[in-house]
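Hi R.,

Here are the chain sequences for the assembly we discussed:
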Amino acid sequence: MHTTETPQSKTAPTGQNAKPTVIDEHIIEIVSDSGEGAQTAGQAFGTISARMGNGIWTVEIIPAEIEPPPRTSSGASGIRIRLGSNQITNMGNEADIIVAFNEQALLGREETGNLKKGATIILENRWKDHTNNVIREQYAEVMEHLLAEGYNVIEIPMEEETLKIVKNPRRGKNMFVLGMLSYIYSRDMELAREQIRFAFRKKGEKVIAPNLQLLEAGYNWAKNNLDFQYEITSPPISKPMVVTNGNVAIGMGIMASGMEVCAMYPITPATSASHYLSEVFENAGGMVHQAEDELAACAFAIGASYAGKCAVTITSGPGMALKTELLGLASMAEIPLVLVDVQRGGPSTGLPTKVEQGDLLSAMFNSPGDNPKVVLAPSTIEDCFYSMITARKIAETFRIPVLVLSDANLATGQQPYPRPEFKEEWVAPPYDQNPVPEGTIPYDWDEKTGLSKRIIPGQPGGLFRVTGLAHTRDGHVAYGAGVNQEGCDKRSLKIATFQKTLKTPRVYGPEEGDLLLVGWGSTRGAIEEAVDKARKEGLTVSSLHLKFLMPMASGIGEILKKFKKVITVEINFSDNPEREMITEENRRYSNLAWLLRARYLVDVDSFSNVHGQPLKPSAILEMTRRELKKLN
Amino acid sequence: MFGVSIDNLLNLDQKYYQMDDYQSDIPRWCPGCGDNGILTATQRLLREEQIAPEKTVFVSGIGCSSRFPHYMNTYGFHSLHGRALPIAEGVKIRRPDLHVFVNMGDGDCFSIGAAHWIHALRYNMNMVAMVHDNNIYGLTKKQASPTTPKGLKSNTTPRGAVLEPLNPLVTTLAVSNVSFVANVVEWIPDLLFDVIKKAFHHKGFSFIRILQRCPHFTPHVFDPIMNEPDRLRLLTHDDGMVIPDAIKKIYKNVETHDPSNIHKAREYASDTETIPIGILFRDESVPTYDDIRKPTKPNTPSVINEALQREFDKFGIKPKND
Ligand SMILES: Cc1ncc(C[n+]2csc(CCOP(=O)(O)OP(=O)(O)O)c2C)c(N)n1
Ligand code: SF4
Ligand SMILES: [Mg+2]
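And here is the predicted structure of the full complex:
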């Protein structure tokens, strides 16, 4: 850290601007009560930094309620921004600097271990001399705790300064903070101004002007009063990039895929993808339909797919649960469908705003009977974009539902990635309305592949009936005994056929060794960062990240067998094997571990939790050290 | 239609369709089942209107009545219990060129699919929905449905149904955007045919509740109205359905009702003693969801590319010396 750590808070250090300290990366958090705009400021700060060429990852800290009680540790709303000279792939470990609008929100982050030892805390000081003595006491108590813990606390009159410019400090403090951070991290102020103009473009000059003033005020205040400043250098940007969160990337990917109907029912954390699409999809000839419930949303998408281009439905775990009967229908009737599940914490309503990867098994097996579908999981924001194009293609080629598993971490995380270059082949071709050749039947399953060509209403000569009942090749309800066996065989064959097109995933690190960490979805960045650090320590650990979960590519079994120990790293539940009641005969593994054990007959362990937090590289690193110690 | 090559939309083939052309599998309903009459009336309509089979989709749920699409030689979608309406909406949303019909049972529409029923009325999409209301669950072998009369014995109500039945007409007429509501019995084929025809020509969501006999499980449920023809109130109007004289001879309770009068429609619907037959309500001016949501742009690669570039610009970072 930059300053000597004295167990005293600094009200206003006299700012004598030395040269900025050059650093490689930093983690910054801004926390406030809900509605104070911490996230807007943080996203703007992230974007400005990305535009300056820094690697960034932002993750929102979201309370479960819209307006939780103010000044509570559980109601903290905010954002974390991780900045670096190079590419950043995950939210990192503990924060270096936290800006807090009140001490209780701050405490919420401190208590949950999100602050580095000796971290700099920039704290709103208006509570210190508040007229309400309860608040004064709370503040004093927290201050005492923070100083005892050795944090570098700087108390700042944010509200007082903000009130010089606007009447309502709740609508202004955030931009003052953006200004302060812009000074602290030597941001390009012209970019910052541009960002403010962009963020408030719909609100007009009346709102833009005071916010620009606040930005300058924050910047100048920091310049005059703080005795530290940083610089995070970055290589110049060589090619055009875009910065979005995962849900926006999904929305863009849907547009790019040529799908034209998205049916949904609101559910956190999936909804923002539909919000985004509702705004822009019509420009690409598409539409978002908000249905009366998830059953209707899925049914609507199936109806649209059946009569035209493949459609998409977006939801989260509880919504997917409601859609299961319809997914079975799409599988049985071989109607293409893309379902996006932006996973959140379960079970039941669970942790609506928090991250979890708990839906993998339910995505695969969620409908009665055998109902093959393809399940894939993007692992980066960029991957969210391209996964939608891939999913649409698979769904149409194989006449099968494709489930895309994103999660709350990807949904709100922002990351820069190369600006996609449009390709016409992304877009679904116009659907066939030509007469079908005589003798064509709707389920003309190929003996080898299980594939058959889809007939679309409107095609002369193609008349047939779709049914969710067991049916013959010509679509008739099956009464004979062998028919269901044949239908199930052929639908399952499509999975095998598709599997033949998959490439074996690459091992990150050497292809054999002591320990292999296997992950899927949003944990990729954290796992690979931990592997890098561990290898620098001389530990023989590698990792493998799976994009396709159903089916899995060939060659994975061989990879697993080249390591002494295999552990899946996941954000979902598994039993703690140390518990007295837990034995190998009753232990319940994490989702992917179940699958790997069942398919490859290898002993796979689970490292997983359901704290509702993205996994930290440090936690994975510690586990790696521990496990390797046990092995050697 | 966007996304469809135009040359395929022209139907050059001027074939004249016969009844046979609309018949598919031989129905497997019980002898005397009222569903047969509904099937015949529908096939008659298609023939009379000379509707191309490939331009027609019948969507159904699950139940005896939902076997309907299998017996129509058109496109058909025999879906899930309760979900026929949202599937039909999905079919229609981007295919205004297709004629969409929905066939549901009383359990299908008024019970497990009740949410979709209310919202289908609100969406007011251009399609014909027929509820085959036999006052019972047929396919699952005689359980009480929402319209089962109080006291009727079924396998789940062995001492008689305990609740007052739901009145689907009153419910329907209470929903905003409702645009066409008719009630009819399948045992007067000419009226049934006429109602379906009027529904077909209505622009919007045409809801038809059809009282349907199930000789297998509820052979006597309609006895009271069948034995007393005056308990049917036939609604006639120049602007609605005109009741033919031959029918008036048997059913003497005929009243003039202007189908634009929703208050009167609600009054008739609430009368459980006398069952209204014909068009209760019709309003052509209600906008349809398919029209409201009509695409303003085709979803072609060039349009998509243009939209995407705008988005990439919005979120874009340019190289420093650009
Ligand atoms: C989700 C689901 N629940 C229950 C059933 C069983 N089921 C099939 S048809 C039916 C009721 C049929 O009654 P109705 O809708 O009135 O049609 P009908 O057979 O009388 O024409 C039921 C409960 C099912 N197929 N799916
Ligand atoms: S059980 Fe009733 S409704 Fe079903 S086919 Fe037989 S008569 Fe018709
Ligand atoms: Mg019934």
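The two ends of chain A are 36 Å apart (CA to CA). Chain A touches chain B through 74 residues (CB under 8 Å).

Let me know if anything looks off.

Best,
T.
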